[in-house]
Amino acid sequence: MAVETAAFTAVVALLITAAASQTPPTAYSNHTVGGPAGWFFNATKNISATNYSSWAASQTFNLGDFLIFRTNSNQTVIQTYNLTTFQSCSFDDASDNDTVQYNGGDTDFNKPLIIQVPLTIKGSNYFFSDANDGVQCQEGMAFEIQVNTGLGLPPSLNQPPPPPYATPPDSNSAQMPPLMIPQTKDNGSSKTIANSRRELFFIAVMVLLLLC
């Protein structure tokens, strides 16, 4: 009887814990990747600054949240929804619609960077650094997260992309539209007035001749 009571108590405790963990969020969150360690790779020891998979497992991610990568130009930030791309530690064969390169490396090393990545697609999201020909990813700079619905996408992220930028025409080659000069329709009124004056003149002359 005591064993059954203990088992029942354990089940109830698990249910309460699960219900508490599923409490809906009340606001969007920013997650600093790696916590205080940031997003870095120690090239001397050939290891990542922290265990990013363990860090990700300790977080809860929802649509509309942001990942904040505090890093520098020695690392890259690749986001993909393609498990094959993630496992290969390279986006060379990725499709345009399933992988985003937020930072592709820089010839100016050690340049501080803060990269903000919005979470806009529910489900599995994968992140890695492909610097050093994928060595950083292979040595621990990679993690997977599960994005939940949460509050849903905020209006600022739930908008269609803007139209592509179009270069304005060269001012030297631009042509002004032809100037249209309105045409006045001749209804013959000016001719009518002129003829009437002539007729009045002849009538006046004839009257004078008769009076003389």
TrEMBL record:
Gene3D superfamilies xref list: Cupredoxins - blue copper proteins (2.60.40.420)
Instruction: List the PROSITE patterns hit by this protein, alphabetically.
Output: PHYTOCYANIN
Here the segments flagged for biased composition (Pro residues) are: 157-167
Q: Which InterPro entries match?
A: Cupredoxin, Phytocyanin-like, Phytocyanin_dom
Q: Where is this region: Disordered?
A: 152-190
Signal peptide positions on this chain:
1-21
Task: Tell me the ranges covered by the Phytocyanin domain, including all copies.
Answer: 29-149
Keywords, ordered alphabetically: Signal
Give a Gene Ontology cellular component term annotated to this protein.
plasma membrane
Q: Pfam families in the record, alphabetically?
A: Cu_bind_like
**Per its record, what are the GO molecular function terms?**
electron transfer activity
TM spans, by residue?
none
Q: What is this protein called?
A: Cucumber peeling cupredoxin-like
Organism (species): Cucurbita moschata (Winter crookneck squash)
